[in-house]
Amino acid sequence: MTVTVLVVDDQAMVRAGFAAVLDAHDDLRVVGQAADGAEAVRLARALRPDVVVMDVRMPGMNGIEATQALQTPPRSSDYVPRVLMLTTFDIDDYVFAALRAGASGFLLKDAVPDEVVAAVRVIAAGDALLAPSVTRRLIEEVARQAPPPRVDEHLLASLTAREREVLVLIARGRSNQEIAAALFIAEQTVKTHVGKILAKLGLRDRVHAVVFAYDVGLVRPGG
């Protein structure tokens, strides 16, 4: 199946470069390019790409605002694309806000072509992605700048004790394999728990599970 992509960046050469890298693969097809957030929202709703590769910092409507707009479609549409955010720095003031806005992953702009292609495929498959350098340190650093967490006991009460344990480990940046080792359970069991956590909390992917854990105070920076 071909994955369709919209590339969004205010620099024409950057847009063209990403488009060329992606179009070189048979399973990926760039259906459009946009120079700012407003154009990205308009083109995305018209072209309905599977993935929007979105720059964070742009004049006018920035990538965060555009991502948020795409996550809240008009009543006449149910189209919500997956968004891969591009950032220049691994510690970016906008990262946590973009995750809250609905981005499914991050990639540094200096990523090599193979990383860009792999990232789009991962996002299109429904998984979340953080570039290797956008680590737990990044999440905690930006979380320090966020408002005090609000504890939502109603949502947390829907989780079993084991699911809470798994969610905490997800928020601490552990992989399924590492969680399985820490809790002495099978990796497939971890995958089942993760699926149930996302379903119960109405979350799209693993990245948003991390955001939720910080938002409700289940995990705190440095804790």
UniProtKB/TrEMBL annotation:
Pfam families per UniProt: GerE, Response_reg
Keywords: DNA-binding, Phosphoprotein, Transcription, Transcription regulation
All residue ranges annotated as the HTH luxR-type domain in the record: 152-217
Domain Response regulatory: 4-124
Record-listed 4-aspartylphosphate modification sites: D55
InterPro entries: CheY-like_superfamily, NreC/VraR/RcsB-like_REC, Sig_transdc_resp-reg_C-effctor, Sig_transdc_resp-reg_receiver, Tscrpt_reg_LuxR_C, WalR-like
Top-level taxon of origin: Bacteria
Gene3D superfamilies associated with the record: 3.40.50.2300
Signal peptide range: none
Protein's UniProt name: Response regulator
